[in-house]
Design goal:
The chain has 421 residues and is α+β, with helices and mostly antiparallel strands. The chain has 16 helices and twelve strands.
Length: 421
């Protein structure tokens, strides 16, 4: 067996041109597949993290019945003060970080007398606890101008795209019109205290933030909230299913609440992500099919050109199995070399992609909604999926491509094989 391995290694260099063509084909295929997968994985990872850091959370606690109606922003489904106290005591006892919020829709109206301009925009208004919210989300760290809201402030923080569309600046006054607890329409004027510019397009373009105590006073919430955003405190990665179970266990037995993990709470978004990921895998599959066809073609040519050599080896006592092993080991070596070259090239190109990214902002602007919560600076990632699995697939594909054309060796007579050119 060892002699076959040595012979296979030497044969790689005996047929230099053919070997080089095959290695180049494998290297290009692995290189392109790794980069495509790394960028796709980067977009998915970045989008999920941005949602968790700016918009959603790893776990969310709703009052009973709110989840089914949440897209309608019901104003009358809330957790009362007694339920809130039980929830907060339970989470505090386990050292779990949380932030109470009240979410509703609001019509933002801005009139600029100097420019004789009046703008109206439908937004999502969040009543937040400024201190607790800053422990769960990175909104405070994303201030572009102005200051973060504080308890007792009669003011709001707005997304940067909202400010740009409406011509808002820090210090302007705007009117908000929304629905109170009793179903009544409420209108009030507030100061724009800050502008946030996050990596989440939805936050920048649709969301406003106001101290919960002030919103409570305007809408007569009587201490009620309609969600708790719960986090494990790690902003650089998403919590796993274990954290969701931990929160559910901590809140077990409290009546009048529902607990959901990130994927459950964002089913529509996850459907888009999973659908696009499936499409991306199909692209990679067809890429490998095309590459495999080229590799198989090269290996078939190699085997056909070496039929006389195979016959000579059989006449010298080599079994057909040994000859098959020889070609397969050659394919394995070629696959390893090609995949290694593709991997090295991919690592060299992926380093700046992961560190700096690809900036498409100048081509598409910063106000295009594509469903993902990302800026248009795309970063790739370093993942086992991309940098280990794909090179191994490249090697396996080459071994398979080597076996297919040699599978029929040994069926003919030696004399017949020697006569064929």
């Amino acid at each position: 067996m060892l002699s076959l391995v040595r012979m296979a290694w030497r044969n790689i260099f005996r047929y230099g041109s053919r070997t080089a063509i095959t290695i180049v084909a494998i290297a290009i295929s692995v290189f392109v597949a790794i980069l495509v997968d790394a960028v796709i994985m980067g977009i998915m990872t970045q989008s999920n993290l941005n949602m968790v850091n700016y918009e959603a959370s790893e776990v969310v606690v709703y009052p009973d019945g709110y989840f089914e109606e949440k897209d309608k922003f019901p104003s009358d489904i809330v957790m009362d003060s007694k339920t809130r106290e039980m929830v907060e005591n339970a989470l505090d006892s386990k050292g779990i970080i949380y932030a109470p919020r009240y979410r509703t829709t609001a019509e933002l109206v801005f009139y600029d007398e100097d420019k004789d301009f009046e703008g109206v925009l439908e937004t999502i208004l969040y009543g937040i606890d400024p201190q607790k919210d800053a422990r769960v989300f990175l909104l405070k760290d994303s201030l572009e101008s102005g200051q973060w809201v504080e308890e007792g402030d009669d003011s709001i923080v707005v997304g940067s795209t909202i400010a740009s569309k409406m011509g808002l600046e820090v210090g302007d006054f705007v009117s908000l019109q929304c629905e109170g607890m009793g179903g009544f329409a409420q209108s009030f004027d507030v100061l724009v205290k800050g502008i946030v510019n996050t990596e989440d397009y939805e936050v920048n373009s649709t969301m406003l933030y106001m101290p919960l105590d002030q919103l409570d006073a305007y809408l007569e919430l009587d201490g009620g909230v309609n969600l708790y955003a719960v986090s494990d405190g790690t902003m650089s990665s998403m919590a796993g299913s274990g954290f969701v179970s931990k929160v559910k266990k901590a809140l077990y037995g409290i009546v009048g609440i529902e607990v959901y993990g990130f994927e459950e709470d964002n089913e529509g978004y996850m459907a888009i992500v999973n659908g696009d990921m499936g499409g991306s895998y199909m692209v990679l599959f067809f890429l490998f099919i095309i590459a495999g066809a080229g590799i198989v073609n090269t290996m078939v040519m190699s085997v056909m050109e070496r039929r006389r050599e195979s016959a000579m080896m059989r006449s010298m006592g080599f079994s057909s199995i040994s000859i098959k092993v020889l070609f397969v080991v050659e394919g394995f070596f070629i696959g390893c070399i090609g995949s290694a070259i593709g991997l090295v090239l991919a690592c060299a190109v992926n380093y700046p992609l992961a560190k700096i990214g690809l900036d498409f902002t100048g081509f598409v602007g910063d106000d295009l909604d594509i469903g993902y919560r990302i800026s248009f600076v795309f970063h790739s990632v370093w993942s086992v999926h991309s940098f280990v699995a794909i090179p191994l697939i490249g090697i396996a594909l080459t071994v398979l491509a080597s076996y297919i054309p040699v599978s029929k060796i040994g069926r003919g007579q030696i004399s017949d094989m020697l006569r064929k050119v």
